[in-house]
Each structure stands twice: as structure tokens, then as C-alpha cells.
Amino acid sequence: MDILIGSLVAGLLIGMVLALVALGLNIIFGVMEIVNFAHGEFLMVGMYTGLLTAQSTGMDPLFALPVAGVVGFLLGVICYSGFVKFLIRGPMVAQLLGTFGLMLFLRNLALLIFGSEDRAIHHGILVGKSFDIGMGVIIPATKLAGAGLAVFAFWAVWMLMNRTRIGKALTATALNAQGARYMGIPTERMNALAWGIGGASVTIAGALIVNFWSVNPYIGILFTMIAFAIVALGGFGSVPGAFFAGLVVGMITELPGIWDFFTYTFNLEWMANVPMTSLKYMWVYLAYFIIVVVRPRGLFGWKR
Amino acid sequence: MEAIRNALDFSDFPRRDLLVAGLVALFLLVFPIFPHSAFAMATMIQFFMFSLYGMGWNTIGGYGGQVDLGKAQYVGIGAYTTAVMLIRWDIPFWVSMPIGMCFAIIWSFIIGYPLFRLKGHYFAIATIATSLVLKDIFEVWDFVGAARGLEISPIKYIPPDFLRLIFKQDVYYYYVILGFFFLGILYVNWFRSSRLGFQLRSIKDNEDVARSLGINVHWAKIKTYAIATAFVSMVGSFHACYIKNIEPEDTMSLDISILIALMAMLGGAGSLWGPIIGAAVLIPLKSYLKEWLGATAGLPGIDLIIYALIIMVVSAVEPRGIWGIVEKVRRRKRR
Fold first, then answer.
1. How many of the other CB atoms lie within 10 Å of CB of A159?
2. Per-residue pLDDT at B183 exceeds 60
3. Distance between CA atoms of A80 and A198, rounded to whole angstroms?
4. Which of A244, B7, B131, B302 is the S-S candidate for B70 at Cβ 3.0 to 4.6 Å?
5. Chain A interface, mutation test: which of B66, B69, B110, B121, most A Cβ atoms within 10 Å?
6. CATH of B38-334, one of 2.60.120, 3.40.390, 1.10.3470, 1.10.260
């Protein structure tokens, strides 16, 4: 039983962080209908930012979040006004491959600068501490803090999107860019802002993830696919959808633990032989495939 | 007969293009006679392989406008079928290649049926997802060597072995793949003037209009996807015999899929020469950059950085690729 509860709790906690990862992709897609393949690479930039800030200044990695946010915002805005602005004039093929190019660029730039080895944070207030909540379930403090801060960041972005004038302008741009332009909304600036917010939220998520996950230049594609799965499940363009879908996908990534629980409970030979841990992320990809085939709109989608 | 005549009919191209194409073909035929380095030879073989992959991609992605970013899974299916059959049961290449193509086509039907209900980026991402699923399965499947992959040991066979395609010198491989290359061009040339080719182009222009004209859009896409798949799987089988050491990571990784799509797009998707031009530009660039900058100068990844910059510039400035630029210049001249 403790394995099951432990996996479910771990899935929920990681799911909250993953929801924040997907939020950035969702905002960018919602406003501009462009799919950013470099999203996971933005996350990687956030992870490296968090790691390097913590290592160079000696402060706790959790305090590196604002730095990561600023870096992500600038990265998003620069990517938009330097590159994506020209990309969206072309056909969809060009958009897909263009952001792929961006992904390759960022990934290999990281490879050139940081090398290919795994890096992890070893020092910090929370690193290595954990809570025992009974029944043998142990929660690492970094994951708990990461989940809490992710929910906070998520809430902040949600408030920004729904309770401020800027958020209203962004939503108007998403619904009808031409109409928004007639109403005097600077849609070009709104697009850049959407990339900025998207970039900032994903780099903050990266700086949270680096507390319990080692970073290397190739880590991006995994998170890109996870983010796609979340956004597809929650519905492209839906912010609450992204949150719930994040929790679901978080559970999917913890399937090996749940599988183990059933293996031990029913003591089944064949279940023990399935290499679940190696197939951990296959379920995410499979989930994406099934979701888009069965329900392309997602659970909360409003955009077709 | 009719089909062969159509395949050999290049008359809708300007004469100057055909002259250039003929000269290039002649050069490719006699290339091994000239003194060359082993590296240049390997690059040439890579070029042929990737232009064949690109031609396969071009049928569905270029003529059909369906951006497929999961071609690597079929490279894997072809390569693994050939390698497993050769290692376990000593089945020669010329038998295992069609079998691999059949497997690939069956798999393409299985995933193509649900896939083609999707459009645009949903489709593109879903192809990536299926490709990664298959790669993950191959990485844990002991029968195909799991993550270690398979190795065809050339010692067991007496080279040159034409049945099993095991050679010591690359020249043999060069001419085998050159044969495939010419056949591939003829096939695509037939395809673009076939009924399916016209149907596909009308689907690309406007799917609803195509449907209203009585074209079975879904089925046309699935059929073309199977054709593209067969191409890729065929070259995948060749890849197994040529490289002799296949792992999920270098046959089925996402980078291969992207590379295939990029080459076709850089050259000009939806034209006969596009993928070939794209491969002719990118493959030498990639391997020489890797050799000079990556290995010699000790800067890992710099080749791919330059590469990525090219992709970004092309997709932002001229999304129709090099062939698009050529056509634009021509149109301006005529005026």
C-alpha cells in the first residue's frame, strides 16, 4: 500500500511542476497558434540558470527562481522578435521546422558551453531533507517545495491572464487578432509578451525541477513531449485544463510505482518481468497519441 | 508498360535542367574512378541514403503537405528486420528487404489510420510520439538486442557477398545505393504524374474541395504514407548492411526524423529535385563541419549549431527552399 500511496503522491507533486512546464507552451499556442518545439530547451535553459546561479552565488537554488524568470522572459521575447515574427508569415511546415531549428540551436549551444555530462545540485537548504508522512511514504522536501511554488506561479499567471488588462488584451489577441488590432491592442507587442510569459513560466519550472533532477543538454525533448501531452489532454489554449492534465500526466510518469504495487499485491510473475522503469516515458508519448486521436480538443479545449 | 513510360517521361522539365541532371548523373556514375578519400566516399553514400529518405518524405510531406516527423521509426523497422534475419536465420538482404518493407507498411497502416484523422501540428507531434514509442520498445526488447543493438559481424561471411550485401570496399555499397537512387528518382517521377499524385496535390491545396470532388482523402493519405514508408524502410535495410552496427539511438532517434524532413524542406518540398538538392547541400556540410569543427577543433555540437542556424534562416526567409529560390529567379527572368 505504501508504494501505491507514495507513487500517487509523487505523481501529484511532479504533476504540479509539469503543469507549469506546459503552461508556457499553452499560452504561446493559445495566443499565436504556433507550436514551440523548443519549449523543452527553454526549460533546460531554466535548469542551467538555476544551477549556475545557485553554484556561483552560493545561495539556495530556490532563490534563483526570479533570475530564471527574468532570463526566460528575455529569452522568450528575443526569440519572438528576432525569429518567430518572421516565421509566422510562412506556411505551417516552416513554422514547425523553424522552431525545431531553434531547439537544435539551443540544445547544441548548451552542449558547447556546458558539455554533455549530467549536472545536479548537491547543496541547499532543502536538498536531502524529507518528510515522513506516515505509512512509509516519504516526500522529499525539494519536490514538495517545487510543487508548492509551481502552484503559486501557476496561480500568478492565471491571475495575470484573467484579472488584469494585459491579460484581457492577450485573450482578445488569442480570440481574434485582427479584431483586437482594430480595438487598439498592439497585437505584435502582445505576441512578444505571450512569448515572454511563456518563457518565464517554463524557465521558473526548470529552476524548480533542477532541485531534484540532474540536467544535461539533451533533456529538453522529454519535457517537450510531456508538455505536448499535457497541453493536448487539457486542450490547446486552456489554462485550467493544463493544470488538471499536468496532474494526470504526473501520475502517468509514476506508473512504474503503481505497477510495482500491483505486482507485489497479486504476486504476478509476468508483471514483474515487464521492464516498466525503462518504459517510463513511453506511456507519456502513448498517452499523447491516444488523446489526440480520441479527443483532439482535449478535456477543456475551446479552440479547434 | 504505361507506367514505365511515365516513369521515364521527364519532358515537363526545361531542357537545361535535364542537361544539368544528366551531367550530375554521369558524375555520380564515374565518381569512384577518381581518386577520393574514404571519408568522401562515406559522405557520398550518406548523401544517397538521405536523398532517398528525403524522396520518401517528399511524397507525403512535400506533395501531400502532411508534415511527418516520425520517419525514423521506419528506418528502424527496415534496419532491424534485415539485421535480425541475417544474424539469426542467415536470410540474405534481397529477401529481408522486401519483408522489412512489408512490416513497415503494415505498421504504417496501423498507425496511419488513426493518425490521418489529425491535421497540422497535431499530426506532426503524433508522428513523433509514435516514433518515440517504437524506439522505447526496441530499447527494452531483448530479441532485437535491446539498447545495445545488433552487430553484423563481417568475419562470418566472405566478402564480396552480393546476396547478403557484405562488402569490404565501400565502392560496392556505392553502386548498390546508386542503383536504388536512380530507381527512386524514376519512381517519384512516376508518382508525381500518377492519379494518386494528382489527388494528393489537390488535397494539399484544399482538402475540402478535394473531398467534394470525390477523392477519398483519408485513404489517399494512408496509401501515400505507405509508399513513403516503403522507401524509408528499404534504405533502412541498406543502412543495416552498410553500417553493420545498429542501435535504437542512431537508427530511430528523433534527430534522424528531423534531418529527413529538413533536407527535403531545404531543397524544396513538393518538387522532384528538392530532396536531392537538400541532401547534396546538407550532408556534406554536416559531415565536414563535424569533422573539422567538432573533431579537430574540439568543439562538440558546433556543427549542429551552424546547421540549426541554416534551418532557422531558411524557414524564416524562404520556406520553399532552394528550389523555391530557383523558381523565383526564373520567373523574374521571364518577365
1. 11
2. yes
3. 11
4. B131
5. B121
6. 1.10.3470
What is the spatial distance between Cα A197 and Cα A160, in angstroms, rounded to a whole number? 10
The answer, yes or no, to whether residue A304 has pLDDT greater than 60, is no
- Average pLDDT on A141-163 reads 82
Distances (CA, A) of B60 to A150, B6, B69, B118: 41, 20, 11, 14
Q: Please check whether residue B139 touches A, CB under 8 A.
A: yes
Cell of A123: 547543496
Query: How many whole angstroms separate alpha carbon A43 and alpha carbon A71?
Result: 11
Position A156 scores a pLDDT of: 86
CA distance B146 to chain A (A): 11
A58–B contact, CB cutoff 8 A: no
**In the predicted model, what is the mean pLDDT of chain B?**
83
- Share in percent of chain A as helix, strand, coil (round to 5): 75, 5, 25
Task: Give dist(CA B335, CA B330) in Å, integer.
Answer: 9
Mean pLDDT across A38-59: 86
pLDDT in tens, B264-281: 888 887 788 888 888 888
CATH fold group of domain A2-294:
ABC transporter involved in vitamin B12 uptake, BtuC (1.10.3470)
Predicted pLDDT at B106: 92
| Interval A235-286: pLDDT, tens | 777 778 888 888 888 888 887 777 777 777 777 767 666 667 777 778 888 8
The verdict on a CB contact (< 8 Å) between A98 and B311 is yes
**Element containing residue B204 per DSSP (H, E):** helix B195-205
φ, ψ of residue A130 in degrees (nearest 5): -155, 160
Per the CB < 8 A criterion, the answer to whether A264 and A3 are in contact is: yes
Position A14 pLDDT exceeds 80: yes
Select from B172, B212, B316, B128 the least CA-distant residue to A221.
B128
pLDDT in tens, B211-234: 888 888 888 889 888 988 988 899
CA B169/CA B171 separation, integer angstroms: 5
Select from B259, B303, B150 the least CA-distant residue to A111. B303
ipTM of this complex: 0.80
SS3 track for A105-133: HHHHHHHHHHCCCCECCCCCCCCCCEEEC
CB A199 within 8 A of CB A72: yes
d(CA B147, CA B247): 6
Domain residue ranges in chain A: 2-294
Give the DSSP letter of residue B296.
Answer: I
Chain segment B308-323, per-residue pLDDT in tens: 888 888 888 877 778 8
Beta carbons within 8 Å of A43's beta carbon, 6+ residues apart: A21, A202, A203, A205, A206, A209, A219, A220, A223
User: What ranges do the domains of chain B cover?
Assistant: 38-334
Q: Which of A94, A225, A278 sits opposite B139 (nearest CB)?
A: A278
DSSP A168-202: HHHHHHHH-HHHHHHTT--HHHHHHHHHHHHHHHH
Residue B194's closest CA among B9, B57, B13, B14? B9
Measure the N-to-C terminal CA separation of chain B; round to a whole number of Å.
Answer: 40
Q: Which of B219, B252, B259, B249 is nearest to B233 (CA)?
A: B252
